[in-house]
Specification:
Number of domains: 1
Shape: elongated
Oligomer: single chain
Number of helices: 4
Helix content: 55-70%
Mean pLDDT: 87
Number of strands: 5
Length: about 160
């Protein structure tokens, strides 16, 4: 039961990433459009009758937002193979960095394009939280692997 704390970190990453998929990441207030929202599927403009019209497609964000919870869940179940779990968690950290960069790029791009101001929401900060949790899980897995190696040296 060495892997307990990093499993919790990875489960929290999975849960928060799943929560990220459920709603609006942020809103943009613009003079040109009544309201513009961004969720994991793309950029939507809210029309007068409260219907959504897609104005921008964000394939990299969509792919990454689906892959992050899947990879973190897979990493939880690799607790018997610490070296593989370490590599999968490192790939998860790199994917989350790219994910954060893509969200930042699209945010700035759409703010410039629509001449809009940003209205942040809670879901906007979820990728940063999952990034930190993934780093903590990586450190825990690495520490456990070092502990097992030290026991092997003593034998």
């Amino acid at each position: 039961m060495i892997q307990r704390i990093q499993s919790i970190y990875l489960l929290l990453t999975t849960i928060l990433s799943g929560l990220f998929l459920t709603g609006t990441i942020f809103k943009l207030n613009s003079v040109k459009a009544p309201e513009i929202i961004l969720n994991f599927r793309g950029l939507f403009e809210v029309t007068g009758d409260n219907s959504f019209q897609m104005t921008g497609n964000m394939i990299p964000v969509t792919i990454a937002s689906v892959l992050v919870p899947l990879i973190s869940l897979i990493s939880v179940f690799l607790y018997r193979h610490r070296n593989l779990q370490l590599k999968v968690t490192l790939a998860l950290i790199i994917l989350e960095l790219l994910f954060i960069a893509a969200i930042a790029y699209y945010t700035v791009h759409f703010m410039m394009h629509f001449d809009a101001s940003l209205v942040p929401g809670f879901r906007m900060f979820i990728p940063f939280i999952t990034f930190i949790l993934s780093i903590l899980a990586y450190r825990g897995i690495r520490n456990d692997e070092n502990l097992v190696r030290s026991y092997d040296r003593l034998r």
